[in-house]
TrEMBL record:
One of its GO terms (molecular function) is carboxy-lyase activity. This is Arginine decarboxylase. It holds the Pfam family OKR_DC_1. Belongs to the Orn/Lys/Arg decarboxylase class-I family. The keyword Lyase applies. Keywords: Decarboxylase, Lyase, Pyridoxal phosphate. It comes from Linum tenue. Residues 7-155 form the Orn/Lys/Arg decarboxylases family 1 pyridoxal-P attachment site domain. It comes from the Eukaryota. Residues 247-309 form the Orn/Lys/Arg decarboxylase C-terminal domain.
């Protein structure tokens, strides 16, 4: 709004694929206006601990950084940390806000695991990731040799200077495969579970527990996948749009839609109706439709493509997507 100062700037960096924003430049702009920078650094708790890694959000001037310590470091699942730096953010206010949200009975198993993860990194902060970085480099070197397999790297982006070296995003479009098909093959035949499955790619994570035998199994699985589909036509498969729907239209707030009377209609009859349920392809687990949202052709097309390619549809009462629950207005 004209004349009003923003309370903060919120950035996600790195992305799930490991792509890092230039937080140094962003924080410099924010601070020139006295505005704090908040960074969702869920997938970056390990950044800044080795010269071959991108700098962490705090090292680049962020005022608040939220890290999911369990994602790459070795704390237990659900454990995370909030880091505060600088004097633009009132620490007492942050503490008070947290007290309104947190349980009065925290899990000491989770808290102890955070302490253990901190101690593990603190013992050899500059060398603890040497093995993981070496293994990631070996994996990339070997995978790039496999016919029909592509790999995401920093050269793919002009405006992003850094990428997490421990994330491997592997593409299968040259083999005519979706990411869901590749994931199913690797899981079923080689016991390889991807970190993230996309419409035409898989993202895998190297961490402190990864060993050479894991890399060898991954490379062997990808080689077998390539060999099994080498005769397929080198054409891109049907792909869904990449994520940002510009025509999102909320007809009701989600609470009113949740409690509204509802009816089930065939998916062909749902276009333009008000969605009455949360429909979320997994992975990546991001809702495409939420209660109260007008159902658009873009959303329906996306859901049908990812479902056809093998995504699991969560939240929907009919995971087959032959029908959708709508608000009975």
């Amino acid at each position: 709004v004209t004349g009003q100062k923003p309370g903060a700037v919120f950035i996600t960096s790195p992305t799930y694929h490991g792509i890092c924003s230039n937080l140094t430049a962003i924080s410099r702009v924010c601070h020139s206006f006295g505005v704090p920078l908040i960074v969702d650094e869920a997938h970056g708790a390990h950044l800044g601990f080795h010269p071959e890694m991108p700098s962490s959000a705090l090292q680049q001037g962020a005022d608040l950084a939220v890290q999911s310590t369990h994602k790459v470091l070795c704390s237990l699942t659900q454990s995370s940390m909030l880091h505060v730096s600088g004097d633009l953010v009132d620490r007492d206010r942050v503490s008070q806000c947290l007290q309104t949200l947190e349980s009065s009975s925290p899990s000491y198993l989770l808290l102890a695991s955070l302490d253990a993860a901190t101690a593990q990194i603190g013992e050899n902060p500059l060398t603890v990731f040497n093995s993981a970085l070496f293994l990631a480099g070996e994996a990339k070197r070997l995978i790039k040799r496999i016919p029909g397999i592509t790999m995401l790297d920093s050269s793919s982006f002009v405006n992003f200077r850094d990428i997490d070296p421990l994330r491997l995003t592997v593409g299968f479009w040259q083999l005519g495969l979706s990411g869901f098909e590749a994931d199913d093959y690797l899981d079923r035949n080689h016991g390889i579970v991807a970190e993230l499955v996309g419409t035409s790619s898989l993202t895998l994570a190297i961490n402190l527990g990864t060993q050479m035998v894991d890399v060898q199994r991954l490379v062997s699985g990808l080689e077998a996948l390539s060999a099994a589909h080498s005769s397929r036509i080198l054409a891109k498969p049907e792909r869904a749009a990449c994520g940002i729907f510009t025509e999102v239209n909320m007809s009701m707030n989600p609470r009113d839609a949740f409690f509204a009377n509802k009816q089930r209609v065939g998916i062909g009859e749902s276009l333009g109706k008000v969605c009455g349920e949360l429909i979320c392809p997994y992975p990546p687990g991001i809702p495409v439709l939420i209660p109260g949202e007008t159902i658009s052709k873009t959303a329906l097309d996306y859901l049908l493509v990812v479902k056809r390619n093998g995504a699991v549809i969560t939240g929907a009462s009919d995971p087959s997507l032959s029908s959708i629950v709508i608000c009975d207005l």
